[in-house]
Specification:
Chain lengths: 199, 364
């Protein structure tokens, strides 16, 4: 080692992240949507459409859930486990398109005015935080309309507008990336069975 | 030797919790004061960026005799400071009544439930459940936001621990944490119609007192309070309104555009701008707001957030006269402290008083 070689230790306080941040202004690559949350879609058009049509979607979902429930013997015959993969695929893409679904696996869209609460950067499931901007946009992502402002608007349109007032349990992270449709169906079927037995 | 005992103090030591009263969920002073129907005053301690306990004591000492509870903030605005747990550990040692804030931003449900037990064991009587600002607001925007629980499920979790004596998982606790549960409200952010309903939701989840965001718009608060009263929520929950002095018009503008959730009307900025001494005017305005707020039916107290102007809290509280002559608990030397002080020189002169040495001396 010659005398001119500098020691390999870094100056204190210099991290990889701070180097990147310093270089950012000079780089050609500027990330467009910096957000702590992965975005499903670039635009909010479909999400907002779903909120505007919350009443129709509520009506539609009730029918749809019934169809799924009547298909319970079919799911049972195929096996819920085997059905999960294709159903999840459809669910992810349909709900992803309509609501920017995050596949939390415990859908509460019916209680949140058809505005997916998992799109909130704080993933609040019980109402808006105190940081909502005066124009109704998000504190964290200034260009995004607050998920809960929209949820409140959507809930006003729905027949069951009291559902938004229920206190929701914390998200069970172990159910991520699973099908909420199948879970709801299986639970409803089990309940129906129980009711039949007691009757 | 003995001093007159203060109201709401354990005779066996200031750092010990009080005897439980029927209907009370905590053994702290704040709950007693609120339930007695007295106008409560709480303040926010500016958390130090140091590992020196003396910094905390100095910052707490300016509130002595003026406030009923001291909020230990949990990295407010997502800026890194001494943890609320650490501040509470120091404050409880000295006999102060801290309100421990828990933000969901930094810890998951496992850590939070552990902290609740630890805090209650240290003698923390009040816990304020918050969601917390997003990490983008703070000094370390590259941090991973946790948000495992939200303020509502956090309230419910702590309530379950206290009342049902079990963890979220259902596992039993041998001694539940006796805490008075608080939450935050912001009547000044949209969706305005939903805000009173959200308070109702928080009460359903377990909130027993709430502290509001900075109030600079009294008419807006009046409207909110009217709806809250109509829903009968003031019967179930104590509402403390957040107030604070603005240092200048420039600060007001900066806060308005940079601190999420603070609503400052133009008239406030204009009033500050027109004043000769803006700092003095900011304090004056804070007192005016307190005087208006304390007359609103259903308001049980104020929460003074004088960030970096903590020394004015006493003045503000005094001049607004909200205490009506009542003197909150002050840290005073106890009888044993006096004993120690008396013997201090003697102790230093003869550091060793071993019986063997004493015998040897006597035998001479």
């Amino acid at each position: 080692m010659s005398k001119n070689d500098k020691p390999l230790t870094r100056k204190s306080g210099v991290t990889q992240a701070s180097l990147v941040r310093k270089a950012r202004a000079l780089l050609a690559y500027k990330p467009a949507d910096v957000s702590p949350q992965r975005r499903v879609q670039r635009r909010y058009t479909m999400r907002l459409w779903s909120v505007r049509h919350a009443r129709f979607l509520e009506w539609f979902y009730a029918r749809f859930a019934n169809v799924f429930l009547t298909l319970h013997p079919v799911w049972n015959a195929i096996g819920y486990r085997r059905a999960e993969k294709p159903v999840k695929f459809v669910e992810r893409h349909v709900k992803g398109f309509m609501f920017d679904c995050r596949m939390c696996g415990q859908c509460i869209l019916s209680s949140t005015g058809m505005s997916c609460p998992m799109n909130c950067p704080k993933q609040l499931r019980n109402g808006p935080c105190g940081g909502v901007r005066a124009n109704g946009n998000c504190e964290v992502e200034p260009d995004m309309p607050c998920v809960w402002v929209k949820a409140w608007e959507g809930a006003q349109k729905m027949r069951n507008d009291e559902a938004i007032l229920a206190v929701q349990k914390p998200v069970d992270q172990s159910l991520r990336e699973t099908s909420a449709w199948l879970r709801v169906t299986a639970t409803a079927a089990a309940e129906r069975e129980k009711a039949r037995e007691t009757a | 030797m003995s001093r007159p005992r203060q109201p709401d103090e354990n005779p066996h030591g200031v750092d010990l919790p009080l005897d439980p009263l029927p209907g009370h969920s905590s053994r702290g002073r704040l709950e007693r004061i609120l339930r007695r129907g007295e106008f409560a005053v709480t303040a926010e301690l500016n958390p130090p960026d140091s590992a020196n306990a003396q910094d905390v004591y100095e910052r707490a000492a300016v509130f002595d005799g003026w406030v009923d509870g001291i909020n230990a903030v949990d990295a407010s605005g997502a800026n890194c400071h001494m943890s609320s747990m650490g501040i509470c550990a120091l404050l409880t040692r000295m006999g102060y009544a801290p309100i421990m804030q828990i933000a969901c931003r930094d810890r998951n449900r496992i850590a939070i439930q552990g902290d609740v037990l630890g805090a209650a064991a240290m003698g923390v009587g009040n816990i304020l459940c918050l969601t917390g600002d997003g990490v983008q607001a703070g000094d370390q925007p590259g941090a991973k936001p946790v948000f495992d629980l939200d303020c509502m499920s956090l309230l419910e979790t702590v309530r379950t621990m206290r009342d049902d004596e079990k963890f979220l998982s259902g596992r039993k606790l041998s001694t539940p944490p006796a805490v008075f549960l608080g939450a935050a409200i912001n009547p000044f952010a949209p969706p305005y119609d939903f805000r009173p309903l959200r308070l109702a939701k928080k009460i359903a989840a377990g909130a027993q007192f709430v502290q509001s965001q900075y109030c600079f718009d009294v008419p807006m608060l009046r409207e909110y309070m009217k709806r809250v009263r109509d829903m009968g929520l003031t019967e179930e929950c104590f509402i403390l309104v957040g107030v604070g002095p603005l240092a200048s018009a420039k600060t007001a503008r900066w806060i308005r555009s940079n601190v999420p959730g603070v609503h400052i009307p133009d008239s406030v900025v204009a009033r500050l701008e027109g004043a000769e001494n803006q700092k003095e005017e900011g304090k004056r305005m804070c007192i005016d707001i307190i005087n208006e707020v304390k007359e609103i039916e259903g308001v049980s107290g104020i929460h003074v957030m004088a960030y970096r102007q903590e020394e004015y809290v006493a003045e503000i509280v005094h001049e607004s006269g909200v205490l009506k002559g009542r003197r909150p608990w002050t840290r005073e030397p106890g009888p044993d402290d006096a004993l120690v002080a008396e013997r201090l020189d003697h102790i230093l002169e003869t550091p060793s008083e071993k019986p063997t040495d004493m015998v040897k001396d006597a035998a001479g």
